[in-house]
Amino acid sequence: MEHWTLPGGAPVPITLQAGRSGLSGPGEPAFSGAAVPAGDFTLTATLAYQNLRDGDEAGLALRGANGGWVSIQLEHITPALLVAARRHAPGEPQVHGRLMATTAVPGWYEGRIRLRMERSTGQIRVSYALEGGEWQTLGPPLRDPTGDTAQAGVFAVDGAER
User: Fold this and answer.
1) CA distance 125 to 139
2) CA–CA separation, 113 vs 48, rounded Å?
3) Cβ distance 159 to 78 under 8 Å?
4) How far apart are CA 96 and CA 69, in angstroms?
5) Which residues contact 21 (CB under 8 A, 6 or more apart)?
6) What DSSP assignment string belongs to 11-50?
7) How far apart (Å, rounded) are the C-alpha atoms in residues 125 and 129?
8) How many angstroms separate the CA atoms of 67 and 147, rounded?
9) How far is the C-alpha of 58 from the C-alpha of 83, rounded, in Å?
10) Residue 79: is the preceding peptide bond cis (ω within 30°)?
11) DSSP secondary-structure letter at 159?
């Protein structure tokens, strides 16, 4: 991860070592975040990537204390590099979250992509932009599954080791 920004904050450079556990898998995921206030916010990050392997994923997530989460993430699934929106409601059986929208992106071996998550009136909109490009909305608005207490931040999963 290159940087992530919380509301009212300056970009914070961060390098995150990928973990073996996903956002709702067994064990603690490789996640770096901060509590977000109730209400509306925008979260952005620039993800710098290289030499991704099948199953690797990284991105932005909003994680609730209730176990619900929503993410916009880069996923390497041979033969494609994808940007995906995923959602996990508390109690749902999908450990990796329900796939809500996805699209292929260029840049097989290395590149940068900007990710954005906006929460407004209980809905979350996700978008992405290729380096130097315009923001592209990914799918329809998602219902926020996180409840009253949530953390927003970045995560990385080493899919080859799951």
Assistant:
1) 8
2) 7
3) no
4) 10
5) 27, 28, 29, 30, 157, 162
6) -EE-----BSS-TTSSS--EEEEEEE-SS-EEEEEEEEEE
7) 14
8) 9
9) 10
10) yes
11) G
For the entire predicted model, the pTM comes to 0.83
Nearest to 76 by CA among 46, 113, 44, 28: 113
Tens-place pLDDT, residues 94-145:
777 889 999 998 765 678 889 999 999 889 999 999 888 899 999 999 998 8
Is 83 within 8 Å of 100 (Cβ atoms)?
Answer: no
**Using CA atoms, how far apart are residues 160 and 12, in angstroms rounded to an integer?**
28
At residue 112, φ and ψ (nearest 5 deg) are: -135, 145
Q: Are 66 and 150 in contact (CB under 8 A)?
A: no
* Cα Rg of the chain (Å, integer): 14
Q: What would the two tokens of residue 50 be?
A: 């290289």
For the chain, strand residue ranges (E) read 3-5, 12-13, 30-36, 41-50, 57-64, 69-77, 80-88, 98-104, 110-120, 123-130, 136-137, 142-143, 150-157
Q: What is the SS3 assignment for 161?
A: helix
pLDDT of residue 138: 96
Residues 30, 158: Cα–Cα separation, whole Å: 9
